Structure formats: C-alpha cells, structure tokens
Amino acid sequence: MLDSTIAGSLPKPAWLAAPRTLWAPWRLEGDALEEGKRDAVRLAVRDQEEAGIDIVTDGEQTRRHFVWGFVERLDGVDFSKMVTIGIRADRYKADVPTVTGPLRRRGSIHGDDVRFLRGATRRRIKFTIPGPMTIADTIKDAYYGSRAKLGLALAGLINEEGRELAALGVDVIQLDEPAFNVYMDEVRDWGIEALDQAVQGLTCRTAVHICYGYGIKANTDWKKTLGGEWRQYERTFPLLARSRIGGVSLECANSRVPIALIRLLGDKDVLVGAIDVASDRAETPQEVAAVIREAMKHVKPSQIFPCTNCGMVPLDRELARAKLHALGAGAALVRRELG
What we know:
The protein is an alpha/beta fold. It is 38% helix and 19% strand. It has a single domain (30-338), classed as TIM Barrel.
C-alpha cells in the first residue's frame, strides 16, 4: 500500500551530460559512453533504493530526451532533416527530426536497457516510454498527413515494444503523455484510442503520465496563465476511467489542480504527484504525507502510489536526491499511520 515511485527521469551526472539541460548532448563517445550510461543507471537505482522508493526506474539515464530515446531507433525518422517547430501548442520551440516514410522498429528499442535495470535491483521496476500523442507532437510529419494517423502508427510500435519489455520482467510500463493536457479535443478524438492500442495485451501494470511539464521556464510561465484552478484533468479523467490504461500519474504537489478530480478516475491506480519538480527546495516528509492524506479523501489508499509531479532531469542532483528521500519518507509516514 502507498508504494512510492517516480515519474521517470533523474538528473544525469555531469560527466555524462550537461547538467540541468534538456536534450543535453553526451560528453562521452563510443564504448566510454555505453559504460558511462550503465554507471549512471547504477547510481540512479542506488539513489532510489537508499531513499526508500519502492518501484524504481533507470532515471532515463540512457536517453538524451524521453521522446528521442524511442524515435532514434525507428525506420522512417530522418535525423538528417532537423527542423524547428513549436511543440505543446507552441509553448516552446524544439529542433526535431522528420518522418519521411512508414515507421517501423529496427528491432528491440529498450530491451537491453530493461535487462540491465532488471539485473541492477531486486525491487519492482518501471520503464517509461513516450506516448503516441506526445511523440507525434515532438517530430515533424512529412509522410502520414495527419497527427491521428501518425499517432496510431506509433501506438502499434509502442505496443510491440511494450510486449517485449513486459516479457523481460518489467513490472510497470508508463506512457508519458504531457500532450494530453494541451490538445483536449485530440485526446477525445484519437488520443484515447491510440493509448488503448499501445497497452493492449500487456501483461504488466500500465500507467499514463499526464502533467503540466518539466520545471522549466516555458512551462512555469504557461502555468501562470491557467488561472486559479487547473481543470484540464476534468476533461481527460472520465475518458481515461473508461480506457484500458491501468493507472494515471498526475501533478498534485504545489499545483492548482483540485485534488477531488481524482475521483473521476474510478478504480484506476493514481500516481499522486507529491513532489514539486519546479521548485529549488526539497519538500519535508510531512509535506509529502499531507498530499497523500488529501488524496486519500477521494480514492482508496490501495489505489495510491506516491510519486513525483514530473521528471527531475532539469534539477540539481543533490536537490533531486533530497526530494527522493522526502518522497520515500513521506510515504512511509502515512503507511505507519494506516498500520
């Protein structure tokens, strides 16, 4: 009960990539890079274990960016044709590759990553994959002609990958869909269909991560425009309650999300974001516990998995470690209260 986990990413060591930077280029090459990635995964796992996190990830240490880590291994994506586009409804600009032909996996994308992670810990493991809509929003389409067609094609590839990862011992596969808080009509029209296709037949637990983005300036500025209450979840949660997805990861800590909205998720797992990834202060265990207690007013404790609001890759490493410890301790505190 109240098993803790994180949204996915942790800061990379400075010897591996530039700190506090999205899409940071690698600082190593060749065999040294592969060794460095594995060492970074070991550190990420150890940090989570020492903090008392129950379901650990690889901290996304082997990927420059949570989307690129998947699309770099797809045929039909041309990284020699990089273009600058606005993503998340033009919230910020990004240099992205171009889809020039039918998308296919060249083979397993993250199989080696999962094998290594499975061998690095005895705890349950979660692996994160970008969701179809978010990938479609973070690449340039010059082949499919519509975001829906592109998204559904991606969903099929994600499903292929997910089935392989589940067979390798992943306990939870999480699809990251920050785009679900932006393109509300598309979520209704094809996003849920793509999500269902992506998780169809998976034998492990599943979740979708929907948040208001990393703690970077473009996102914090956008949040200031959303008013006194952030109610995007009000439109997506009823749809997700009827979907195949097993759980939903959302932003609760230090946000303006009405926590009562989680009732709309029915009996889904609720990965309650109890760590603010946009602050430069570590929470106390008591603050984490307060968020969890508030969530328990609206869903059963057995549904709740204390979590971070989003990934922590843009943060300082020591700050991220302190936040991990607060998360683990806060969850343990409420567990003790429940006996």
